[in-house]
Amino acid sequence: LIKSIKQTIEVVLDYILETFATSPEDVSPGKKENIIRDCRDSHKAHHIPYNAANTSYVCMLWNDEQHSFDEVINVVSSAIQCSKEHAMRVAEEVDTYGRHLVFSSNDLDEAIKVADQIYEIKLAVTIRSVQTSVREEISGLLLDWLKDL
């Protein structure tokens, strides 16, 4: 039983560390070529097939403790064409959890357009593949699980 527990924890820690090692350090949208390169490299590191034409992308908004709720609400509602109420829920999620997926698309140019609008006021935003983003979410859940152990 102890051996199985150790092996499970090792696998979980490897997964988390591999995921965080390939997560973005720069919280700005970046150029299209860099986003594609980062997604390709991240997928390769995790043994996930990558095809830029068939990949879905997400814009992840990060909490930066520098912008007011009103600033976040205004820029998010403008960038993704949503109601102020929806943008307020996004701002609350970012404040509570540190980040929130604000937009997803199969069109990288569209994701870049949204991210650039959000970044106009220097709000922290990244563009990642859906697969990489899901892997990061799973890592967060695994960290909580380890903490509960």
TrEMBL record:
Reaction catalysed by this enzyme: S-ubiquitinyl-[E2 ubiquitin-conjugating enzyme]-L-cysteine + [acceptor protein]-L-lysine = [E2 ubiquitin-conjugating enzyme]-L-cysteine + N(6)-ubiquitinyl-[acceptor protein]-L-lysine
Keyword Zinc listed: yes
Adaptor protein ClpS core domain sequence ranges: 55-119
Pfam families in UniProt: ClpS
Molecular function, one GO term: zinc ion binding
GO terms, biological process: protein ubiquitination; ubiquitin-dependent protein catabolic process via the N-end rule pathway
Entry superkingdom: Eukaryota
Protein name, as recorded: E3 ubiquitin-protein ligase
